[in-house]
Amino acid sequence: MTRMEKLQHILEPIGRKLGKQRHLSAISSGIMMVAPITLISAFINIIANPPVTQELIDSGGGWILLKPWFWFATTFYNQIMLPYNMTIGFFGLIAVFGISYRLSESYKMDSPASASLIAIIMFLITASPVHTIGKDLVMNVSNLGSSGLFGAMIVGLFSVEITRFVINKKITINLPDSVPPLVQDSFIAIIPALLNLIIWYSLSLICQNYANCLLPELITNILTPLFNIALNPVTVILIVTFGNLLWLFGIHGTSVVYSILMPVLMQNMSANAENYINGGKNALVLYPSSLLLWMGIGATGCTLALTVLMTKSKAPQLKALGRLSLIPNWCGVNEPVLFGVPIVLNPILGIPFIIVPIVIGGLAYGLMAIGVLDIGHNVMWTMLPLGMQNFLMTQNWVNSVAEYLFMLLAMIIYYPFFKTYEKQLLEEANQNVEA
């Protein structure tokens, strides 16, 4: 057994088990299910916060061109930010729906929507109980956004488990077969909803009376220090490298990595957006979200650099695949390269596939730490051309330019391995012709 086969024998079962773990998958896919709203929020954030100040405009020069944008943003700031506040401001609440729906769907429950609705109500009870002030009902929404995301995950997962337990034990109200299915489903949900209410409302009252905080706040207070200790830059690089190793054996390493990092990633990205809007630029969290982006410029393994090299390859198959894959890879889709070259199970190209993200991640971290590159303060999204995503995250063109400079570095590292593999393919082609 070769070393490659031994490594595959060790990593493959670990990767497959993590990738198929039901609750991690529900968190990752559930948040990604509602993530498109973050792209809308990113654009709104850019419109509301132009990269210019009144002092720069008064100084004249090219800055004067941005005066209409600056006037519009400052004059109508509250109106512009309303959609942002109604999306990122309620991201925790929206995440409950996605997580609970995906988990109930994975269990093949008859009505995932009912389970999700129960989870949403339980989260509202624990995260934002209504209080009476005079004749007015007042709801505190501070825990419904990114700050309540950990609580949203816990409530979303366990609420579905409670609902599933009740239904599996057939502790439900059963109606005659003549009753329409929609009516039956609503009655089946009554007892699961009641048991959820008893459990979550009791926990909420206990937290309020003995911990002097709401349940999502308590969960966040417990989990945040643990995540901050575990997810330092070195750990993030190791997790991403583990995901890239899984890719070499045909396992979707990105889904595994996102299952592990997604909760903290979204929490930190949303917190950075809020800090930036409130003027706290120095309070931005540097990892894992910003570092994760740099380690994947040009998609997993920074393969855009390899794709560009392939477009000029002497090997016909590499040249054709490179030209076909260039635009998709530029927008972050590199499966054609991973499986077409292939990089999967390729010991030659597997080396730079692992090394390049580590080198670029380390350099990017150092440059962010000393202030040369900006830390992301908008919510991350995918399927965007190289440089565009980073600009949406930072509103700094320097970051976008840096992505292309890092890609050139990646090309330099990939080049000798690419030429070695290209030579191997050409030799094999010549042997086939001679035969």
Automatic annotation (TrEMBL):
<feature type="transmembrane region" description="Helical">
    <location>
        <begin position="218"/>
        <end position="240"/>
    </location>
</feature>
<feature type="transmembrane region" description="Helical">
    <location>
        <begin position="26"/>
        <end position="48"/>
    </location>
</feature>
<feature type="transmembrane region" description="Helical">
    <location>
        <begin position="113"/>
        <end position="134"/>
    </location>
</feature>
<keyword id="KW-0762">Sugar transport</keyword>
<dbReference type="InterPro" id="IPR051088">
    <property type="entry name" value="PTS_Sugar-EIIC/EIIB"/>
</dbReference>
<comment type="function">
    <text>The phosphoenolpyruvate-dependent sugar phosphotransferase system (PTS), a major carbohydrate active -transport system, catalyzes the phosphorylation of incoming sugar substrates concomitant with their translocation across the cell membrane.</text>
</comment>
<keyword id="KW-1133">Transmembrane helix</keyword>
<feature type="transmembrane region" description="Helical">
    <location>
        <begin position="146"/>
        <end position="167"/>
    </location>
</feature>
<feature type="transmembrane region" description="Helical">
    <location>
        <begin position="321"/>
        <end position="345"/>
    </location>
</feature>
<feature type="transmembrane region" description="Helical">
    <location>
        <begin position="187"/>
        <end position="206"/>
    </location>
</feature>
<feature type="domain" description="PTS EIIC type-3">
    <location>
        <begin position="7"/>
        <end position="417"/>
    </location>
</feature>
<dbReference type="GO" id="GO:0008982">
    <property type="term" value="F:protein-N(PI)-phosphohistidine-sugar phosphotransferase activity"/>
</dbReference>
<feature type="transmembrane region" description="Helical">
    <location>
        <begin position="351"/>
        <end position="376"/>
    </location>
</feature>
<keyword id="KW-0472">Membrane</keyword>
<feature type="transmembrane region" description="Helical">
    <location>
        <begin position="397"/>
        <end position="417"/>
    </location>
</feature>
<dbReference type="GO" id="GO:0009401">
    <property type="term" value="P:phosphoenolpyruvate-dependent sugar phosphotransferase system"/>
</dbReference>
<keyword id="KW-1003">Cell membrane</keyword>
<feature type="transmembrane region" description="Helical">
    <location>
        <begin position="286"/>
        <end position="309"/>
    </location>
</feature>
<keyword id="KW-0813">Transport</keyword>
<dbReference type="GO" id="GO:1902815">
    <property type="term" value="P:N,N'-diacetylchitobiose import"/>
</dbReference>
<feature type="transmembrane region" description="Helical">
    <location>
        <begin position="80"/>
        <end position="101"/>
    </location>
</feature>
<dbReference type="InterPro" id="IPR004501">
    <property type="entry name" value="PTS_EIIC_3"/>
</dbReference>
<keyword id="KW-0812">Transmembrane</keyword>
<protein>
    <recommendedName>
        <fullName>Permease IIC component</fullName>
    </recommendedName>
</protein>
<dbReference type="InterPro" id="IPR003352">
    <property type="entry name" value="PTS_EIIC"/>
</dbReference>
<dbReference type="Pfam" id="PF02378">
    <property type="entry name" value="PTS_EIIC"/>
</dbReference>
<dbReference type="GO" id="GO:0005886">
    <property type="term" value="C:plasma membrane"/>
</dbReference>
<dbReference type="InterPro" id="IPR004796">
    <property type="entry name" value="PTS_IIC_cello"/>
</dbReference>
<feature type="transmembrane region" description="Helical">
    <location>
        <begin position="245"/>
        <end position="266"/>
    </location>
</feature>
